[in-house]
Amino acid sequence: MLLECGMQEEGLFRVAPSASKLKKLKASLDCGVLDVQEYSSDPHAIAGALKSYLRELPEPLMTTELYDEWIQASNIQDMDKRLQALMAACEKLPTDNLNNFRSVTSHYPAC
Questions:
Q1: Average pLDDT over residues 51-66
Q2: Which Gene Ontology terms cover its molecular function (predicted)?
């Protein structure tokens, strides 16, 4: 839904949706019943639900164990070497985390 209606929206992940709309959307997602039309005009609600989902994961998506490796990789100045280091860290993610990461970043060509 974000790819279809939200990628051109300025401040997509910075602008907070209304609390009541976010709560209603999360409840709909939890029940598996979602009226797509109701939320297609509000990409901020969809982005807010995604941010909430990621915050509420029992373990960080990129894992606590790999934290130092992510930080080291992000500090590499050479872009090619940085990308190689980030890809190497990705390969160490548990399968569920890697699949989730790929899903969240699927709109980027390198993922």
A1: 93
A2: GTPase activator activity
